[in-house]
């Protein structure tokens, strides 16, 4: 995978173990990734290699192990590439056999020649099974439901969980790219206990989650398997140029309703003028019910897109401005400060006042 552009934004290092991103106004519009995935990505590196990788990606070492920290998506992408260079392994050293650099591109090329998504997906999964020893996945179709089921023989529980997370997100992201649209997952189930970062799974996989399941699997409408593969070799080159960011955060069709709504709402981040769904639907020349249905089909909702933007904007204001919490709440469209307090705690695990105090203590 080629190197992505240098990441933008700086970091905020609150004391007492809760750090997060302090982004520039441009950076705060971008996607962010939980620090859990950074910790897991470097877990199999020695001290010197870990220091080199963190430096290459621009991740401050003191953020490791900080539960509520977040990094920009571009930073995590750079980290993934740096670990792959260090280990010559695109699977973070999780399997006994290395997934050597270039393997993912090879698998995508093989999948690209499937006549429709079902055949392409089977080629992709077969390729992973051939290249890895401890982890494999298979496509199972049961009537109207299709499932990608993961079998892992990794002994360490934490490594096994991260391998499940990584393989499923890579497979699903590639599926979405091959079909040229986000394929919604009806259910994601995991053969491990519910982790503290489970909220991330709702974004990465599905809002419908199950833990302590008999197996790790994702389920979706089998009708999607008949979708044509709409990509070609030229599109693959472009896709790989943005990998792994495009994989981890899912393929994004720039003309999808999610992207179009997000693009429209970005202009509201610095104001209190958040439009209603009906207003945005009218601007997009669709009925409100159609917009809701399209967003749901892409695995999100109008409120979900709005909250993601407001979360990162709130982090920026708390770390980089002198606005009061009430002023921040008002700017982000909350009619009551108490509602902002509840929302921010749901997003980050702490109340905004505590978050800001920790940020100031660390300066």
Give the helix/strand layout.
Layout (H helix, E strand, L loop, with lengths): L9 E3 L7 E3 L9 E3 H7 L5 H11 L12 E3 H15 L15 H10 L4 H15 L3 E8 L2 E8 L4 H23 L7 E3 L8 H7 L4 E2 L5 E6 L11 H9 L3 H4 L8 H10 L10 H7 L4 H10 L4 H19 L4 H7 L5 H12 L3 H10 L2
Parallel strand pairs: 7-8
Antiparallel strand pairs: 1-2, 3-4, 5-6, 6-9, 7-9
Helix pairs in contact: 2-3, 4-5, 5-6, 10-13, 11-12, 14-15
What does this entry look like structurally?
The longest helix is centred in the middle third of the chain and has 23 residues, at 157-179. Helix 2 (47-57) runs antiparallel to helix 3 (73-87), helix 11 (277-283) crosses helix 12 (288-297) and helix 14 crosses helix 15. Strand 7 (187-189), helix 7 (198-204) and strand 8 form a beta-alpha-beta unit. Mean pLDDT is 84; it is low at 2-30. The protein is 48% helix and 11% strand. The protein has three domains: 1-87, no CATH class; 96-252, no CATH class; 257-297 and 301-361, Arc Repressor Mutant, subunit A, CATH 1.10.10. The strands form three sheets. The chain has a five-stranded mixed β-sheet with strand order 5-6-9-7-8. It has a two-stranded antiparallel sheet with strand order 1-2. By secondary structure, it is an alpha+beta fold. The chain has helices at 35-41, 47-57, 73-87, 103-112, 117-131, 157-179, 198-204, 233-241, 245-248, 257-266, 277-283, 288-297, 302-320, 325-331, 337-348, 352-361; strands at 10-12, 20-22, 32-34, 70-72, 135-142, 145-152, 187-189, 209-210, 216-221. The chain has 16 helices and nine strands. Residues 259-358 form the HTH araC/xylS-type domain. One of its GO terms (cellular component) is cytosol. One of its GO terms (molecular function) is transcription cis-regulatory region binding.
């Amino acid at each position: 995978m080629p190197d992505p552009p240098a990441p933008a934004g700086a970091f905020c290092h609150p004391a007492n173990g809760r750090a997060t991103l302090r982004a520039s106004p441009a950076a705060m519009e971008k996607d962010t990734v939980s620090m859990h995935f950074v910790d897991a990505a470097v877990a199999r590196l020695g001290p010197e290699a870990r220091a080199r990788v963190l430096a290459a990606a621009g991740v401050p070492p003191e953020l490791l192990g900080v539960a509520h920290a977040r990094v920009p998506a571009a930073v995590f992408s750079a980290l993934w590439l740096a670990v792959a260079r260090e280990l010559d392994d695109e699977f973070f050293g999780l399997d006994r056999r290395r997934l050597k650099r270039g393997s993912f591109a090879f698998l995508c090329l093989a999948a690209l020649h499937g006549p429709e998504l079902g055949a392409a997906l089977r080629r992709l999964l077969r390729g992973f099974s051939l290249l890895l020893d401890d982890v494999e996945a298979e496509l199972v179709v049961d009537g109207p439901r299709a499932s990608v089921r993961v079998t892992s023989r990794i002994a360490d529980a934490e490594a096994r969980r991260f391998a499940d997370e990584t393989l499923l997100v890579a497979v699903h992201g590639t599926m979405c790219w091959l079909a040229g649209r986000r394929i919604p997952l009806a259910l994601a189930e995991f053969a491990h206990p519910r982790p503290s970062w489970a909220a991330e799974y709702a974004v990465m996989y599905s809002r419908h989650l199950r833990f302590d399941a008999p197996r790790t699997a994702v389920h979706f409408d089998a009708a999607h398997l008949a979708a044509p593969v709409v990509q070609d070799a030229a599109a693959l080159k472009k896709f790989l140029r943005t990998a792994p960011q495009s994989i981890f955060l899912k393929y994004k069709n720039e003309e999808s309703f999610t992207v179009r709504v997000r693009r429209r709402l970005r202009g509201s981040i610095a104001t209190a003028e958040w439009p209603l769904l009906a207003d945005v639907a009218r601007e997009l020349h669709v009925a409100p019910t159609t917009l809701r249905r399209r967003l749901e089909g892409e695995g999100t909702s109008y409120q979900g897109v709005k909250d993601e933007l407001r979360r990162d904007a709130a982090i920026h204001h708390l770390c980089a401005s002198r606005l009061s919490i009430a002023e921040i709440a008002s700017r982000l469209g909350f009619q009551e400060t108490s509602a902002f307090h509840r929302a921010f705690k749901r997003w980050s695990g702490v109340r905004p006042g505590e978050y800001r105090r920790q940020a100031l203590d660390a300066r």
